[in-house]
Amino acid sequence: MKKMFGNGRFKLIDVLLTTIIVFLAMTAILLVFSKGSSDNQLKSAQSPKSDKDKVLVDKSDSKYDGIKIVTETSNDPLGKYAVQYPQSKDEDFNENVVTYIKQAKKNYLAEIRNVKIEDNKRKSELNISYETHVDKKGNYSFVLMNNQSLQGSKRLSEIESFHLNSKTGEQLGIQTVFKEDPSTLQKMTERVRKTIQQTDKLNEGLISDKMQIRTEPDWRNYENYAITEESMVFYFERGSLKNGKAGPQIVTIPIEEMNDLLKPEFQVATASQAGDDKVNKPSTPKKENTPDGKDKETSSKNEGAKDDQQAGGEDASPQAEKPHEKRIALTFDDGPDPKTTLQILDTLKKYDAKATFFMLGSRVEYYPEAAKAVKSAGHEVGNHSWNHPDLSKMPLAKALEEINRTTAIIQKVTGEKPTVFRPPYGAYTQQLSKQTIPPITLWNVDTLDWKYRDANKLLEEVKKATNDGSTVLMHDIHPSTAEGLDSVMAYLQSQGYKFVTVSELHK
After folding, report:
1. 332 vs 51, 327, 336, 348, CA distance in Å?
2. Which residues are catalytic?
3. Taking Cα atoms as reference points, which of 287, 333, 319 lies closest to residue 426?
């Protein structure tokens, strides 16, 4: 009996221990699930922030055959960036471009990794944009501009160029386009330096010991280049100038002056060879042609108004005796930009002038304070699509999405919807024009600031083409435009022009 009792007692203890272990295990499991549920609730509560901080990728058609525009944006407070780059049908080209983009983002994020939000009162930003050049043979030059701001301190701009034969997929390095003659590199260097010495604007930033080193006859110094229909363009790094501005320095040489150094497949006809073709070449870009004739109609109305006033006679009204008030609409595309847009606003304020800013939705989202500043200064805000695709090559639904998405972000940031719309490249379909969107407004004077990037050239083009009733196209993303605007404004004011918005001009 004693033995049996003893065995029963031990069995009872075993049961109790087993029960305790099971209880503790169940409690632990409940705690784990409870914590998981709490974490999920916390994540759910934070989901709007997570959505805001994620990377958004857009892909759209460009006006160039076989080339798409890829846009990546991140609004993460510690990793904010807006990156735009080309994508072609050639995988090797795409891989090289994406490799550069990934490395640029990696370097940027590595530098700001240890910056705390509370210490980062002045935000860090990365912005990579690009421009496309096409030569007379149809070859592409894509020039990527890498701008960084770390805690509000702007770094030097970095340039990286990529080149593509769209027909063969061949990537065109600098040595691919120039002759293999041993003297070619030395002659090219001499012409670049001669251009530098003859250009007053470049003297301040380029004539230095560093620039002499950067233009040494070494092919690596000339890797960042572009070939356009008219010019050979070289991009060099430069340090801060006396006025505090920094960025890449651009040297432009007429293509005819480089002809003898280029391989035959990259040479162009000289002026004497071109003959009548050059005479008959349109003086304005193809994109200036208005599909619906709106610009011609406006021009005709202005000419008619002047003729009526000059005619006078018994039917002339008393107002016709007053001097005619010349009006002009200055417009700025592709912004806003946190630096150059604000610089342009200061210049416009100096001349008590109003202008129209056609904004990209992706940049309004990225630079809301700059967009607000434009609106607060009393200027007109226009819609210029989300990320600058060729809307005429897109399905109607997708084109409308580009426009509506931009309208929504502009209204959210500025408090008002855009009042006018300008399609990128001036390209749109009649079907699109019939939709309920802001009025389409193009231009009849292209300053070519996107092409020359020269403050002095800006005034030259304005003098050459501007008349009463002109709508002038500029871009508030180019420092050269911001630098050259004061001279343009002073000239136009001296000619008696009143600065109005495009809506006011077309009333």
Report:
1. 31, 17, 9, 12
2. 333, 475
3. 287
- Please report whether residue 63 resides in a domain: yes
Residue 445: strand, helix, or coil: strand
The sign one gets for the Cα dihedral 107, 113, 114, 120 is: positive
Residue-wise pLDDT tens digits, 489-498: 999 999 999 9
Position 247 pLDDT exceeds 50: yes
Domain count, the chain: 3
Domain presence at residue 19 = no
Of the candidates 365, 413, 407, the residue with the CA atom closest to the CA atom of residue 385: 407
**Is residue 485 within 8 Å of residue 344, measured between CB atoms?**
yes
What digits encode the pLDDT tens for the residues 186-240? 999 999 988 887 765 544 444 566 677 888 999 999 999 999 988 999 998 754 3
- Token pair of 83, please? 């990156």
Structure tokens at 426: 């001036």
Q: Position 222: which residue type?
A: Y
Q: Are 148 and 125 in contact (CB under 8 A)?
A: yes
Q: List alpha helices for 179-268, DSSP H.
A: 184-198, 200-206, 209-214
Task: Give the torsion sign (CA, 336, 338, 342, 344).
Answer: negative
pLDDT at position 458 is 94
Give the closest residue to 444 by CA, choosing from 246, 273, 288, 327.
288
* Domain of 456, in residue numbers: 286-303+324-505
CATH code (residue 496): 3.20.20.370
219 and 368 inside one domain: no
Spatial contact of 385 and 402, defined as CB atoms under 8 Å apart:
yes
- Whether residue 7 is contained in a domain is answered as no
The sign of the CA dihedral 497, 499, 505, 507 is: negative
Number of Cβ atoms within 10 Å of the Cβ of 402: 24
